[in-house]
Write a structure and sequence with these properties.
The complex is a heterodimer. Chain A is an alpha+beta fold. Chain A folds into three domains: 117 residues, Orthogonal Bundle (Butyryl-Coa Dehydrogenase, subunit A, domain 1); 96 residues, Butyryl-CoA Dehydrogenase, subunit A, domain 2; 149 residues, Butyryl-CoA Dehydrogenase, subunit A, domain 3 (Up-down Bundle). In chain A, the strands form three sheets. Chain A has a four-stranded mixed sheet. In chain A, strands 2-3-7-6 form a four-stranded antiparallel sheet, with no helix packed on it. Chain A is globular. By secondary structure, chain B is of the alpha+beta class. In chain B, the strands form three sheets. A four-stranded mixed sheet of chain B has the order 1-4-5-8. Chain B has a four-stranded antiparallel sheet with strand order 2-3-7-6, with no helix packed on it. A two-stranded antiparallel ribbon of chain B has the order 9-10. In chain B, helix 4 runs antiparallel to helix 5, helix 8 runs antiparallel to helix 9 and helix 9 runs antiparallel to helix 11. Classes of the chains: A alpha+beta, B alpha+beta.
Chain lengths: 375, 382
């Protein structure tokens, strides 16, 4: 499939970045037909163990973890090259949720012995924690209110925990007398019930209900937990946006390819101006998105403040969420009837865009936060 | 002579800004309309005397010799200070073209006259029957001894009434492919047989003109390049300058005026308005990210191709959406021609709205830009 993005025309990658990108391209080429993606749909945990092991082996799980915890300590601009490819390949493994949100929450926490014990295992692919922070729909607020921790017992409910099925443990935010803190809860903890909801893309969200669950280790004290979580979530939003860019660009490549092959009225339909102009508009959206991603990853690699990061993450997530939905919706339209069948791969891209664009705040929520921060 | 390219970026910026503060007329900052010569002629000569009229030309031809990076800084500083455009076709179009394709004699004759204000140029490309399909132009130049005899009609000639020279594309061959019978010809506007007539635009401003040619005799020596080679030359001119059409500055200025208007109308308490406002603000911020990505290419000494059309599309359509919202905020003032007070400034919502109309038409309409991207970048079939 022809790469129509402007990356090779106008952007410059370092040699190291080229190697990272090439290895990610090779990784997704293993499932070019998306057969593995289809096999894992609607079955727990939603991805296979081999995929996760391969990612660990490639070192990707430690990209954002400092070297002193066995990580690689690379930059967002490097990591995004991998995430774009994972998006292109619709790889169902919970990379952004685990290797970004969970890993970075732990890194930013204040329990040093926990970091030393757990981060190497996370990076090696041997331990997968899932962060349970959300308590209502469509919120960006990380202050825990409904889940409380008193006398070492958790009570309340957490919503929309992605990919909990494959997780070994949860890191749960809870209201304490001192404020929000983070606790480790093993998956088989007594009093914890897990209810799964199937997602459109074939994965699962979990609702966690805590009924006097004894907390495990404190991952982050109330002194740092809210800030660690908020800041790691903004990083996860950048990661999800990079995946969304991959989703939209591959959907567009597939569509352009289809327009070039499909013949009606004795001509390839891609010769018709109405379809050409629609395609160009989608292309422009994808390259505007890529431009914002490049700008944002550079900012996240700098010493910008948390507030600057929040503004940038919202700007990026708002653009990539909307652009991915627009492109994948129009991709269905441009495919015509075949695009509405489950057999045709283009629909998988729409569903992935639906999931990722709403994860960790949809475009409206992020425009709302952007407005609050800049007006 | 100062080597501007050797200056630190910040020093260069400061030098430009200090000089503008001292020399640019206050009453001409952020002009609402394209200025005529009687308004901006003095400023043109101030620039000329300083040696800053042609920032992109090489120093040996009297320019500042700026590299792409410094040229962008200069554009940013001038735009940021609200410096209005002069009749600049001599500096931006015909000068660079003569430097690249002209004869030594043509360069010696024409370039100094641009730099001393003696020649003010305008561009004669479009015709009533040749707009987006420019190659179908019919203004004909027929050889007669050492002259061509030119007959025809050019239109949308910006500021022709202020110019004394016009560079034209004329037809010298009606056979074969239409692009191949076109010649690039320089014509003094005081030649007998030429009539210039201003056209009022929707903003009631005579920014463009029509130029009629009735048996106009032009020396053959006024050809640039070879006979029938004009199309190639005109196309080659679309180089670095193309980036400027993607600059988010115009849209940002429109956004500032929308903000002033909305504040004075107390709109920021209205969540419906805020939602639309923020979406537009993000459209500009995201354009800015894309623009800077292209600027990086130029700074590296790279080449920008057809893909730059995406900036023009996004930029101009965003600007139009901003002025849509201005009309909405203006309410009944949408029907009032005069600017209305907004905070410490005055804004004409209908004026902004009308001025935004041609942005998606000029410089290759946005539909033509989409055709270009579909073919050159997406490689869609014909």
């Amino acid at each position: 499939m022809e790469d129509i993005s402007l990356q090779s025309r106008i952007d410059v990658l370092t040699e190291e970045q080229m190697m990272i990108q090439d290895s990610a391209v090779a990784f997704i080429a293993q499932d070019e037909e998306l057969k593995k993606v289809r096999e894992n749909r609607f079955t727990q945990p939603g991805y296979d163990a081999k995929t996760w092991a391969e990612m660990a082996e490639a070192g990707w799980l430690g990209f954002l973890v400092p070297e002193k915890y066995d990580g690689i300590g690379l930059a967002f601009s490097d990591l995004s090259l991998v995430l774009i490819q994972l998006g292109k390949g619709l790889v169902p493994a919970p990379f952004s949720a685990t290797a970004v949100l969970a890993a970075r929450t732990i890194v930013k926490s204040d329990n040093e012995s926990f970091k030393k014990a757990r981060l190497p295992a996370l990076i090696a692919g041997e331990w997968k924690p899932a962060i349970a922070w959300q308590e209502t729909r469509a919120t960006l607020n990380v202050k825990a209110e409904k889940v409380t921790c008193a006398d070492g017992k958790l009570n309340g409910q957490k919503l929309f925990v992605p990919d909990a099925g494959g997780a070994d443990a949860f890191i749960v935010s809870a209201a304490t007398a001192a404020g929000t803190a983070l606790y480790l809860v093993e998956k088989d903890a007594s009093g914890l019930s897990i209810e799964y909801a199937q997602r459109v893309d074939g994965g699962f969200y979990a609702t966690l209900t805590f009924d006097n669950v004894a907390v495990g280790e404190e991952v982050a004290s109330a002194a740092v937990a809210e800030q660690a979580l908020a800041s790691a979530l903004d990083e996860a939003r950048v990661a999800a946006s990079a995946e969304l860019l991959g989703v939209m660009t591959r959907a567009l490549e597939i569509t352009i390819d289809y327009l070039t092959q499909r013949v009606q009225f004795d001509k390839p339909i891609g010769s018709f101006q109405a379809l050409q102009h629609q395609s160009v508009d989608l292309f422009v959206l994808s390259e505007i998105s890529r431009s914002v991603l490049l700008q944002t990853t550079a900012l996240f690699d700098s010493d910008a403040s948390d507030e600057e990061r929040a503004i940038a993450a919202s700007q990026l997530k708002a653009r990539c969420g909307d652009a991915a939905l627009q492109i994948t919706k129009d991709a269905i339209q441009l495919h015509g009837g075949i695009g509405y069948t489950d057999e045709c791969n283009i629909g998988l891209y729409l569903k992935k865009a639906m999931y990722l664009s709403s994860l960790w705040g949809n475009s409206s929520a992020h425009r709302g936060r952007y407005a609050e921060l800049v007006l | 002579m100062t080597d501007y390219n050797a200056m630190a970026d910040d020093d260069f910026r400061k030098m430009l800004n200090d000089w503008l503060v001292e020399n640019y007329p206050n009453e001409l900052r952020f002009p609402a309309k394209r200025m005529h010569w009687d308004q901006c002629g003095d400023w043109y000569m101030t620039l000329a005397n300083k040696g800053w009229l042609a920032p992109g030309w090489p120093t040996e031809h009297g320019g500042m010799g700026l590299d792409a990076n410094k040229l962008l800084i200069l554009m940013e500083e001038f735009e940021g200070y609200g410096v209005g455009r002069t009749p600049d076709q001599g500096m931006t179009m015909i000068g660079p073209l003569l430097i690249q394709y002209g004869t030594e004699e043509q360069r010696k004759h024409y370039l100094p006259k641009i730099l001393n204000g003696e020649n003010i140029w305008c561009q004669g490309y479009s015709e009533p029957g040749a707009g987006s399909d420019l190659a179908s132009l019919r203004t004909a130049a027929v050889r007669d001894g050492d002259d061509y005899v030119v007959n025809g009609h050019k239109i949308w000639t910006t500021l022709a009434m202020d110019a004394n020279m016009i560079f034209t594309l004329v037809r010298t061959n009606k056979e074969g492919k239409k692009q191949q019978g076109i010649t690039f010809l320089l014509i003094p506007l005081d030649t007998p047989g030429i009539t210039v007539r201003g056209i009022d635009n929707l903003g009631m401003h005579d920014e463009f003109a029509e130029v009629f040619f009735d048996d106009v005799r032009v020396p053959v020596a006024n050809i640039v390049g070879k006979e029938n080679d004009g199309w190639t030359i005109a196309k080659a001119l679309l180089g670095h300058e193309r980036i400027f059409i993607g600059s988010p500055k115009m849209a940002s200025l429109a956004m500032n005026r929308l903000q002033a208007l909305a504040e004075s109308a107390d709109m920021f308490g209205d969540p419906l308005f805020v939602e639309r406002y923020i979406a537009l603000k993000l459209d500009i911020e995201d354009l800015s990210a894309a623009y800077l990505r292209f600027v990086e290419v130029l700074k590296r000494g790279g080449h920008i191709g057809a893909e730059v059309s995406m900036l023009k599309i996004w930029n101009t359509e965003t600007q139009q959406r901003i002025t849509d919202l201005m009309l909405d905020v203006a309410g009944e003032n949408c029907g009032v021609s005069d600017a209305i007070p907004a905070g410490d400034t005055a804004v004409s919502a209908p004026g902004e709205f009308i001025d935004a109309r041609p942005t998606t038409i000029y410089g290759g309409s946005n539909q033509i830009q989409r055709n270009i991207l579909a073919k050159a970048v997406l490689k869609l079939p014909s």
